Amino acid sequence: MPKFAAGVVKFQQEVFPENAALFEKLAQGQSPEALFITCSDSRIETGMLTQSQPGDLFIVRNAGNIVPPHYKGAGATTAAIEYACVALNVPHIVVCGHTQCGAMKGAMNLDALDALPHVKEWLSYSQAAVEITNELGKDLDEHARNLLLLEQNVILQLAHLRTHPAVAVRLARGDLRLHGWVYDIADGEVYAFDDANNRFEPVSKRYAAEVAKHLALHTHDHPAL
Amino acid sequence: MPKFAAGVVKFQQEVFPENAALFEKLAQGQSPEALFITCSDSRIETGMLTQSQPGDLFIVRNAGNIVPPHYKGAGATTAAIEYACVALNVPHIVVCGHTQCGAMKGAMNLDALDALPHVKEWLSYSQAAVEITNELGKDLDEHARNLLLLEQNVILQLAHLRTHPAVAVRLARGDLRLHGWVYDIADGEVYAFDDANNRFEPVSKRYAAEVAKHLALHTHDHPAL
Amino acid sequence: MPKFAAGVVKFQQEVFPENAALFEKLAQGQSPEALFITCSDSRIETGMLTQSQPGDLFIVRNAGNIVPPHYKGAGATTAAIEYACVALNVPHIVVCGHTQCGAMKGAMNLDALDALPHVKEWLSYSQAAVEITNELGKDLDEHARNLLLLEQNVILQLAHLRTHPAVAVRLARGDLRLHGWVYDIADGEVYAFDDANNRFEPVSKRYAAEVAKHLALHTHDHPAL
Amino acid sequence: MPKFAAGVVKFQQEVFPENAALFEKLAQGQSPEALFITCSDSRIETGMLTQSQPGDLFIVRNAGNIVPPHYKGAGATTAAIEYACVALNVPHIVVCGHTQCGAMKGAMNLDALDALPHVKEWLSYSQAAVEITNELGKDLDEHARNLLLLEQNVILQLAHLRTHPAVAVRLARGDLRLHGWVYDIADGEVYAFDDANNRFEPVSKRYAAEVAKHLALHTHDHPAL
């Protein structure tokens, strides 16, 4: 019995009517703030995690939040990146990994993936992160080594993103900003990559100025709150 | 100023604490009810649309909710389908298209996509739906023809799904059910494909029995409501 | 000493003169009734099996009567399907497997194919049929399991056929009919797939009405018989 | 009304019983004399043309009797060649083109193939033959130029055959012989390539010694004829 079908009916009865004005506006077009690339993992609920509304995020989800490097050909992720940049001119791209990621566990142990040949091939796009982790994480305990892999995978996918012409040209002219995140589903923390210092730090710290500014604006906009 | 970063901080302060028990449980593993394949379009908020919780849906999002037919090689969608079927044994797969889909508009007019070469190639996986629409929709007005394309694209992607071994084998032994949906973002309606009668009908009608059963159970679980 | 060269000389001396009028007509063009996709196996003689004349069947033969799912690119089978549908508008496509098929034996035992790497890769297009057979045929004896594989392979290739735009559009407008057959070379029986009831039955039963009609017409055309 | 289904029933009633012994023997295995690669064109009836019996020829048929050069990957023609050589050890391979070939007409005029994109890509494997024909055939009338293309295409596909490892190794040790033919469907003539003299001549002349020897043997075997 698919719960999700009942959920849609509940959405239609309880949620849509309250947001009818927003959906009417959105039927005219979309202008999302970001391309958000994250894992297919069911434990990531993008709307909840980012407290965003319909219309805010153009979303790509695949196993392992992976971005293949640019190549000539048809690819799900490649096409979506091109659409987000060229057709929608998004000013931000987020690559968001997460703890307990089955894809990344598989990447660390490819020999165990014989029953998943396509996953195995797909994870070749994370291989550099695995090798870096094996090098740099030799003396770490398992938890810390897993976290290192998640971070290195996000950094690698950001590098892959830069190989896409539509991304590279917008970065070159300052129209686009890249963000690398790792979401810890056990405690809700999100670690954001600080490119200049080559480290991850909590999102509240990494975006402190902007969060404060946004909260101030938000307060100004809605004085009653 | 990225609004989504402020949203994460809000999530951490207001939402996560209330759901801490759920997230603690989810940190042990996932067992989603469905693989949900939908478009990257920002106007689709999967959690809101299906009223689902973290853990409920394994989600693939790309431009046009497209499923390439099975082939040997590495592909985002192919790998995620394999993972959902083989590693997670999801009992349902939903392919969910939507109105106002930019990818489908592009598919109807590929000549206008010269600035989006990867999107153009990616949309070759929707070509049969375009050709069927041009044939069967000749006498329809633009709105009805667009809707026909969205429906035919979903039907085509379901056909592509059946070429994936992990899907085919589970269908053959009755362990998997496929669902084809089209979501109208302007009025909140979701049309679901009725395979036996080769037509789409409102989700509340298509799943009437299951919705009723679920709502009954739900009421039983929470008598206070 | 190639017997087939002597055969051609015999054809020129004994057969061509009797059919000169037919060949003269055929030199103007072809309008075949069907695209007939079958195995390269030498034991299948398409003209003998279908009692057809030159001009009747547009024929594709490869190892395993396989149809790769549609993809953008150059492929022998893909190109021939497109030509048969778009250039010749054939009203029927038959996929005809057969007993004792070496390709299907190989598909059941890929590990034994290390000396045939291209065959091994090619047989990935039959992988779903193998997996379904392993699931559903667990309790069958070897003969029945082999037959199940041949049937499942034909059903799978029909599913692949439907992913080709030229096929999909003609099916949608009712201009094309698909047929799935398994030929038993030991006893001459041909089993035809009954889509509605999801089973194979003897060709004489499956096409009873049409065979009767054709034989009646044939008798009418040639009253002397 | 598919005539070919009625044909199968006729085969079962009239032809199979007379050949039951042959088919019983063939059910044990196949040992064909040649791999015969020819066009899908309906006007070519391989059994009739070569006066062969079931079991004699392992047959590959595609649009344009094309053999892609060897490459790593899954291909219908590549797999069948490998199977014929490695698994069946055929001593001969014939590539047989024919007059009035729609594929070759298309190859001479690729711009007219916009509605057949896969055919267009597939014909890239005949491009060298087209270019040679345009060079060497400048001063020929249309009929002669078309014939030149058919011949050059067969010569090119023989060259492609030699790039396949399974073919090359058998040629090197003298276990395999290649044959290039062009069949004129209007008059029944078959022209065979004479490698040493780089020209085509009638099959009766090209194989004169062998045909004579075969006919003598055949007479010996069946003195009553």
TrEMBL record, chains A, B, C, D:
Catalytic activity: hydrogencarbonate + H(+) = CO2 + H2O
Enzyme Commission number: 4.2.1.1
Binding site for Zn(2+): C39, D41, H98, C101
The keyword Lipid metabolism is annotated on this UniProt entry: no
CDD domains for this protein: beta_CA_cladeB (cd00884)
Class of this enzyme: lyase
Superkingdom assignment: Bacteria
An example molecular function term from Gene Ontology annotations: carbonate dehydratase activity
Cofactor detail note: Binds 1 zinc ion per subunit.
Cofactor dependence: Zn(2+)
Official protein name in the record: carbonic anhydrase
